[in-house]
Amino acid sequence: MRRDLGIRVDAPRPRRDAPCMNDPVLVIESLRHAGASGATLLTGLDLSIARGEWVTLLGASGAGKTTLLRLIAEQGLAKVPARLVTPPRSALPWQGCAQRLAQPLRSAGLPRTEAEARVKRAMAQVGLADQAETLPSALSEGGVARLALAAAMLSGAGLLLLDGLADAALAAALLEWRRESGVAVLCAVRDSMPAAGFGDRVAVLAGGRILQQGPAQALFDAPDDARVARLMGPCALLPGRLIADEDEDGYATMVLDGGARLLGRTMAVRVGDPCLGYIRPGRVVVTGGVAEEFGEGFWAARVLERRAMGDHISLRLALADGTEVLANRPAGGAALPGPGAPAVLRLPPQDVVILPVPGLAARYGSAT
To answer: Which domains can be identified in the chain, with CATH numbers?
Structure first.
């Protein structure tokens, strides 16, 4: 046990065909770490990863994602060999990609024919089948990322640590190989799209700890924190104050700073507290017309910008008090107002989550 890091190390368990959290390859509890400057980067971080599981570590630049990956790789925190995915190095600059990949296998005593067969298959899996003789220095940036992944796949590691994801094709190759090998993946990214869609679970890192984790769709629909909401993609966060707890339909009421009332779901805000009304652009209802003609729950707005985005139309709108709201509506649907035109908005209560202002909920602890 590493008492200073709070890492629990259990005996290895038998392999299983599907990821199971009773069969972890990594268990971190209350991990703390300070950088070279003395600033605290990780403040009580908890994270578990099962064999064969893909966890997407999502965080803004400077959140500590790279630091965490390096700690896992360099301090032996995992229960299985962990490999930080980096391009293979060699003291022989004339070696082509295939030779570079085969060298560690040959050094470990693997017969030449078997080493060559493994390298050939790995290079095909990552899309480098025709680059066997190419010098690594001649590869594109994407090619270098593929070579690094091939080296990691050949390393025998049980946990791969990726600092970024080159593209969807590379992710798909890694997914297929993961199913065959049972390797676990921890992939650090700054943008949830499309990386979150490849993983089994997303863990959001901010403030030195994991704020929330779970399936990507669950975090998208119901974030616990405004920081999670922003990291999961574009959204509206409307400031206001909670004025009523949940009614018989399960909706609480907040009043926006501009005076409008908004209904939504909440579990972590007390009546009287400042809060944020959260909704995704795809859930905002937009139409032309005059709000007074639609009744309660509809707001007057004006279109600031309208952009065609292929399968949807993206609108940027301003409420009467100047607050901006983003809305995405299907292309080819009902006619939508253009820039400068009045519009009518509705934020369906079932799609609104009323969030605490960051830092406020921490004062109340688990009671909220």
So the answer is: 24-221 (3.40.50.300), 235-367 (2.40.50.140)
**Pairing label, strands 54-58, 184-189:** parallel
Is the pLDDT assigned to residue 12 strictly greater than 50? no
Neighbours of 235 (CB within 10 A): 23
Question: Does the structure show a pLDDT above 80 at 193?
Answer: no
In 215-360, DSSP assigns E strands to 236-244, 252-256, 261-264, 274-279, 285-287, 298-308, 312-319, 324-330, 342-346, 353-356
Give dist(CA 222, CA 352) in Å, integer.
9
Q: How far is CA 45 from CA 40, 164, 212, 300, 329, in A?
A: 12, 20, 11, 44, 39
Tell whether the model's pLDDT for residue 333 goes beyond 80.
no
- Containing 186, the helix (H) or strand (E) segment is strand 184-189
Handedness of CA 134, 136, 140, 145 (dihedral sign): positive
Q: Does the pTM exceed 0.70?
A: yes
Residue in 250, 314, 320, 307 with CA at minimum distance from that of residue 282: 314
Please give the Cα distance from 5 to 2 (Å, whole number). 6
Note the pLDDT tens digit of each residue in 200-238: 999 999 999 999 999 999 999 999 999 999 999 999 999
What one-letter code names the amino acid at 319?
Answer: L
Three-state SS for 305? strand
In this structure, the strands spanning 201-206 and 82-84 are unpaired
* Residue pair 232/218 in contact by the 8 Å Cβ criterion: no
Sign of CA dihedral 301, 305, 308, 314: negative
